[in-house]
Write a structure and sequence with these properties.
By secondary structure, this protein is an alpha/beta fold. The chain contains 9 helices and 7 strands; from the N terminus they run H-H-E-H-E-H-E-E-H-E-H-H-H-E-H-E. The chain has a 7-stranded mixed sheet. Helix 3 links the parallel strand 1 and strand 2.
Length: about 270
């Protein structure tokens, strides 16, 4: 059917096309994980929109920016949920693939390639921003966060997630405790003992919740603390952590927070 969502076979073929056109992911295991992640996104995209709705707000009728849209499957899901979706990427091959996916799924999205620095939008343009598994690949994450803050409206929210460096199993390489090391030492270990170059190839950086707090210091962005949970012990744990200014995802495998744009903060 014309409006049938993109199949897993199509997603896999497009992922392989992207891999054939880029110099990253030279390790077979890393390549296969990327393909599996793309296929998984096609399956979980509606669930992610539902999580966004519960934690950040209703996307329908709102203007939303996805920073680092990759295959475009999340952008498609938000468009299907009624959002006016815009997206940014640095890779033109990903732009072509994402446009193919959006066309195949009948979703109206406005996707662009940009220089990786300045967002091509005016101040206070978006109601929401969305970015998952992107910030760890950015050389200057504070610059990206500052741009997100700039283009969000006052009271606008950003749904942000990235792998937690303090999770024992590093997400991209699947090497235990690699992200516990300083980046330069981790790169040496990868080259010397694993004969792989993933740190440089993927422009991989190790981030934590506490690093995020330092990055948004003096930016008009604040972490929204979330205390709902299915069980009482979890609710209590979230409250206790929140008392110390720690979001509960700081101790999880993935840091996943909602940032809200506040008034302008002064530099100290």
């Amino acid at each position: 059917m014309e409006n049938q969502l993109t199949s897993a076979e199509e997603i896999r073929a497009r992922a392989e096309r992207y891999l054939a056109a880029c110099s990253e992911y030279t390790d077979p295991g890393e390549r296969e994980r990327l393909i599996a992640n793309w296929v998984r996104k096609g399956d979980v995209a509606p669930e992610v929109v539902g999580d966004f709705r519960r934690r950040a707000g209703e996307p329908s009728g709102k203007r939303l920016l996805e920073v680092g849209f990759g295959s475009g499957l999340f952008a498609v899901a938000f468009a299907r949920a009624g959002a006016e979706v815009h997206g940014l990427e640095v890779n033109p091959v990903l732009l072509d693939i994402a446009r193919e996916n959006s066309k195949r799924d009948g979703a109206a999205v406005d996707l662009k390639v940009y220089d990786g620095r300045k967002f091509p939008y005016t101040d206070n343009f978006f109601d929401y921003a969305f970015s998952t598994s992107v910030l760890e690949h950015v050389s200057n994450p504070r610059e990206v966060l500052a741009e997100i803050a700039r283009v969000l409206k006052r009271g606008g929210k950003c749904y942000l997630s990235f792998p937690n460096r303090w999770a024992p199993l590093e997400t991209h390489t699947h090497i235990w405790f690699l992200s516990f090391l300083p980046r330069t030492l981790a790169e040496f270990v990868m080259r010397r003992f694993y004969k792989r170059n993933a740190i440089e190839e993927l422009n991989l950086h190790f981030l934590s919740y506490f690093k995020l707090r330092r990055l948004i210091r003096a930016l008009p962005l604040a972490v929204c603390f979330e205390y709902e949970a299915k069980t009482t012990p979890r609710r209590i744990a979230k409250r206790v952590l929140g008392t110390f200014g720690i979001h509960h995802s700081a101790i999880l495998r993935t840091v996943m927070v909602i940032l809200e744009k506040e008034g302008i903060k002064e530099e100290f």
